[in-house]
Amino acid sequence: MDHRPPHPSHRHVGEPRLPLLAVPFALIAAVTVVDVLAPPDVHLGPFLVAAPALTASFAGPRMTGFVGAVAVAAQVSVALMRTTATDLNHTFQIIALVLISIFVTLFAHLREVHEKQLIQLRSVAEAAQEVVLRPLRDRMGPLLLASVYLAAEAEAQIGGDLYAATRTPHGTRLIIGDVRGKGLEAVGDAALVLGAFRAAAHQEADLPALVAYLEAAVAADPDGTGEPAGEPGEAFTTAAVLDIPDREMTLRLVSCGHPPPLLLRGGRAIPLEVDHPAPPLGLTRYVDTGFAPQTFSFEPGDVILLYTDGVIEARDASGAFYPLPERAADWPGDGPDALLRHLCADLLAHSPGGSLGDDAAMVAIERVTGGA
Q1: DSSP category for residue 9
Q2: pTM score, two decimals?
Q3: Is residue 219 within 8 Å of 228, Cβ to Cβ?
Q4: Euclidean distance between CA atoms 57 and 104, whole angstroms
Q5: Dihedral through CA 183, CA 186, CA 191, CA 193, nearest 10?
């Protein structure tokens, strides 16, 4: 099953937060009353500038300008009640308040424009990523699958986490990866890797050939100039590529700089560390290495958990990383879908405010008795 927790709906840019609006108006009222009642040599009018300045931090330019106008009107009223509006002291206070109100209103306008740009960029990136990350089927041959993608907090940029699974004549192949970088460029690189995986997973007979195809796709020059794009090491993708045969109680794994999958068996979480990991995709041209697969036991009832570094690098309020192996081992066992629900709730509870600092993805695979 594919889980995609919806993003909380974005507050309309510049929309005032009603509870907060009471603060600047209360401030204006309090300063006005106290200033009128204060002795002649005490002037509290300068405190009125705090009202529009405070409003600019959470409201749009219209509301900020309105609060500034109310503050100016209050200052004029104080001047009329205490002396006269043309009194030199009050005249300078009114002029200063007008200028500051204009300045913070302009600031609120610029902030609103910036927020609109960020929201638009993130919306486009989210839509692109949803197209790239197609939902996984609940079952493929003798495997039950579930996946989840957790976006980072609203202010963070979208990431390049990726996963996919496809059937072959002899089993199921899966990939999980994480593109270096953020934003639309990372989503585009993820689409490149996933497109290459879906195209070659059916064609390449063995796992090393498939990973070599992915490496060639990542290292290729998209502009056709014959030279790799960017500086050496600028673009790369960590990935774990698995081949799970239908009729063998094993799996074969090639790790390209990606965190090791966890094998959940008998209340234990066992990291599947390969003896000879390859560099991330896009970097192997700088290192003389191969893509040697390693075979691990994968029996009925076992669950494999794939994840990206956004999971294990999530920190709590004290700065401690999320202990994924320990938390996964505590799972009582009720299928991959229940496992991901358990881990998602626990991960968000671990993170301050329930917000992740980086996007995170997880895929759980359980082998059940019998084939498709």
Answers
A1: P
A2: 0.69
A3: yes
A4: 9
A5: -170
